[in-house]
Design brief:
- The complex is a heterodimer.
- By secondary structure, chain A is mostly helical.
- Chain A has 15 helices and four strands.
- In chain A, strands 1-2 form a two-stranded antiparallel ribbon.
- Chain B is α/β, with parallel strands linked by helices.
- Chain B has two domains: 186 residues, Periplasmic binding protein-like II (D-Maltodextrin-Binding Protein, domain 2), CATH 3.40.190; 204 residues, 3-Layer(aba) Sandwich (D-Maltodextrin-Binding Protein, domain 2), CATH 3.40.190.
- Chain B has 18 helices and ten strands.
- In chain B, helix 11 crosses helix 18.
- The radius of gyration of chain B is 24 Å and the shape is globular.
- The relative contact order of chain B is 0.16.
- The chains are: A mainly alpha, B alpha/beta.
- Chains A and B meet through helix 2, helix 12, helix 14, strand 3 and strand 4 of A and helix 1, helix 12 and helix 17 of B.
């Protein structure tokens, strides 16, 4: 892109190819992404009253969201749950994804393609189906979960988890981990496969064991991918909505214990049952989500990625 | 460095997926401040009256009922009114409100509009889309409770003819009752609990309900047995008037009674959803199912024929009994219809006894709200209907007016009632949360 401007031309000719190549993407992106974003942020600055949109209230909606005794417990609750949701993905999904990637890229394992396909398969299933299957598995009346635990002598551990305030969020996070573990696995596999064989061979010749090869050679070389997986997980988790809605409904029960930013936004903006939608407060929640995601991603971009890039170079 | 614009783009794109949906929808909030438009119907030239045939079309979300309307209801009407042809044009239930709004705004809606209860239809009336029906003679067949869902807050204008309600109570498995030698259904709470103990001792699950989906706890629990505590309409209107509060004894007692259900519910009921509970009862594993009458046809269709119905037990023997007879569906007239006379003829027929009998029989569990007596072929549905003879009808107390603000009373009732039954919230704490939430936005009219 930058090369075009560097050409020392005296004529300021309008560059048609530039317009033709960039135009469609810029136009589509502006109309369907940038404009709605700013319009949504604008909407969050209005309150009910007046005619049409309402009256301009400045940042009052954000103050309400963060401090009002009616709104703030829901907001902080959803944010806290979302952080737990994210933590479980980081601590369970990504390490398992990495482990699977290492196993599936070693030469000794047979049928790697079959495993890779099977592990990736849930990712392409509809969330509604995943939610429905897990609801059936965990159902106290017909679910196989209690029977399976009984069979290995752990029947006492079973509980109606989806209906209990403590375990519900953890169980839903693990369902999501089960569904999406294929994505970090694929990204890590691709990164591992791009490491030249010679380096690993050389290390082996020098007497390094598998663990040492992993920790001293493979791990540092796939570090940028770990960062990308982390930021993708972060963005995905803070936009998550569908699984909770499919499994627990719009009220994200019991007692809002599975409420994420996404379900909170949905309830606020579109309403639920007899609750009427509140577009301005909904836009405010969406604005808060945008800020949170932006902060997280900036942290990655300016804190982590720069260092990784210089290290790689 | 070259990766940054891409990553920033990805951030924007992903962050946006939450925001982009900002524009559609959300316009369902009732615009209470808008003045009710005058009804232009009267100024239209009457098209029917004479010999020529007019055609009326009905907007509805009940696409399940298409066959019933086409084969039973409409032919019965056309037989007595040969000049009026009627077509039934249902939309998918989830799309109905949006589609109807669009059609009304574009003046392409049918002549007759099936009315959702309370604020959705009230909003249409206030925007001038639904005609006032105050002068419809057939409305005299309906009591105040029946009309409560389609009336302005000040009670001056009725804008839909009530069609059907659903009744709450308990469905029981007669085979299990026979096996255990139970010959009568309970009429008081004391009898109810004695019965539950007896069933439990015999090793059968006495009560079949789960709390995972939450709405059953509030709808089939709280709103089912509650009216006997808060004296039906009297208590419901007192809440609206602000002379009663959810922290009063009747409400706390209702939650206490619900909390006492816990030992009688299936094991791990906190994880049991509504369809689970239905299938559990269908498979004959539980004796009593806290129900809405719409469940009757579900169970009968699933082959569970030997069932009966009893109403919510009285708190003390000899008390007046109250019944949640919740208004659900009605029929109104498009204010811009070209055939107002024909439409009113049809509505008047809908308000009469023939329609009441046809409709209630075609859909067991959905009851005509008309005062004219109806005899039903389905004995279980008839048992539920018979309760109207002795008990006073009321509707769910969260539906009229009280669910307009935030936090939403109905949704909050779901949440706290499920928590009370789960034992994670005391009845007193539940009452306080509900009343505090209501006090935040609701100011009684006085």
């Amino acid at each position: 892109m930058a090369t075009i401007d560097r050409r020392p031309t005296t004529r300021r000719r309008f560059s048609w190819p530039l317009l033709v190549f960039l135009g469609p993407a810029v136009l589509t992106y502006s109309v369907f992404m940038v404009f709605p974003l700013f319009d949504s942020l604008r909407l969050s600055l209005f309150g009910p009253g007046g005619s049409g949109l309402g009256v301009f209230v400045g940042l009052q909606n954000y103050v309400t969201l963060l401090t009002d005794p009616l709104w703030s417990p829901r907001f902080w609750g959803a944010l806290g749950n979302n952080l737990v949701f994210f933590a479980i993905h980081m601590l369970v999904q990504n390490p398992i994804g990495l482990l699977l990637a290492v196993l599936l890229t070693t030469r000794v394992l047979r049928g790697r393609a079959v495993y890779r396909t099977l592990i990736f398969a849930p990712t392409i299933l509809s969330v509604v189906i995943v939610g429905f299957i897990w609801k059936l598995i965990l159902s106290p009346l017909w679910g196989v979960a209690s029977g399976a635990l009984d069979a290995i002598g752990l029947g006492g551990l079973y509980g109606p988890w989806l209906g209990l305030e403590g375990p519900a969020l953890i169980v839903i996070s693990l369902m999501s981990v089960w569904q999406y573990v294929g994505i970090p696995m694929l990204l890590f596999s691709a990164a591992l496969l791009s490491i030249p064989d010679e380096i690993v061979e050389a290390a082996r010749v020098d007497g390094a064991g598998p663990f040492r090869i992993f920790s001293r050679i493979q791990m540092p070389l796939i570090a940028p991918t770990i960062g990308i997986v982390a930021v993708l997980t972060f963005v995905g988790n803070f936009n998550a909505f569908d699984l909770v809605y499919a499994v627990q409904g719009g009220l994200a029960g019991p007692e809002f214990s599975t409420d994420l930013m996404g379900t909170f936004f949905y309830r606020t903006f579109f309403g639920f049952q007899l609750q009427a939608g509140n577009p301005t407060m909904g836009a405010t929640v969406a604005g808060a989500m945008f800020v949170i995601i932006l902060l997280g991603v900036c942290l990655y971009l300016f804190g982590l990625q720069r260092r990784l890039q210089t290290y790689e170079a | 460095m070259k990766r940054r614009p891409l990553a920033l783009g990805a951030v924007l794109a992903l962050a946006l997926s939450a925001c982009t949906s900002a524009n559609p929808g959300g316009s369902t909030a009732p615009v209470a401040s808008q003045p009710a438009a005058s009804q232009p119907a009267a100024s239209q030239p009457p098209a029917s009256a004479g010999g020529e045939t007019v055609t009326l079309s009905i907007e509805s979300w009940r696409n399940d009922d298409l066959a019933i309307w086409q084969d039973k209801i409409i032919p019965a009407f056309e037989k007595t009114n040969p000049n009026i042809k009627v077509t039934f044009n249902p939309t998918a239930p989830a799309d109905y409100n949006g589609v109807l709004n669009t059609k009304l705004e574009g003046s392409s809606a049918g002549d007759l509009i099936t009315c959702r209860p309370f604020d959705a239809s009230l909003g249409l009336f206030q925007k001038g889309y639904l005609a006032s029906l105050n002068d419809l003679p057939g409305l005299k067949n309906f009591g105040d409770v029946a009309k409560s869902a389609w009336i302005t807050d000040d009670g001056k204008d009725v804008f839909c003819v009530p069609m059907a309600s659903v009744i709450h109570g308990f469905i029981y498995n007669k085979d299990i009752f026979d096996k255990l030698g139970i010959t009568s259904t309970p009429t008081t709470l004391a009898e109810f609990h004695a019965l539950l103990d007896k069933i439990k001792d015999a090793g059968v699950t006495p009560l079949d309900m789960g709390t995972k989906d939450m709405w059953e706890s509030a709808t089939m629990g709280f709103q089912n047995i509650g009216p006997n505590y808060w004296k039906g309409e009297e208590g419901r209107k007192a809440l609206i008037a602000g002379t009663a509060s959810f922290t009063d004894q009747p409400y706390i007692d209702t939650w206490k009674e619900l909390a006492s259900w816990a030992p009688y519910l299936p094991k791990d009921y906190a994880g049991i959803a509504y369809p689970d509970a239905q299938q559990y009862f269908q498979s004959g594993k539980a004796a009593i199912y806290p129900a809405g009458t719409w469940d009757i046809s579900t169970f009968e269709a699933a082959g569970l024929k030997n069932i009966g119905f009893f109403g919510p037990p009285a708190v003390n023997a000899g008390d007046q009994c109250y019944l949640s007879d919740h208004t659900d569906i009605a029929l109104g007239m498009n204010a811009k219809t070209k055939n107002p006379e024909a439409a009113k003829t049809f509505l008047d027929w809908v308000a009469g006894p023939d329609f009441a009998s046809l409709y209630s029989n075609a859909l067991p569990g959905f009851y005509s709200l008309s005062d004219s007596p109806v005899t039903l072929e389905d004995p279980v549905a008839q048992q539920a209907l018979d309760l109207r003879k002795t008990c006073k009808s009321t509707i769910r107390n969260s539906y009229q007016i009280l669910s307009r603000g935030a936090p939403n009373l109905e949704n909050e009732l779901w949440r706290v009632t499920a928590a009370v039954i789960n034992g994670t919230l005391t009845p007193e704490a539940a009452a306080k949360e509900i009343q505090d939430g209501l006090d935040k936005w609701y100011k009684p009219a006085t």
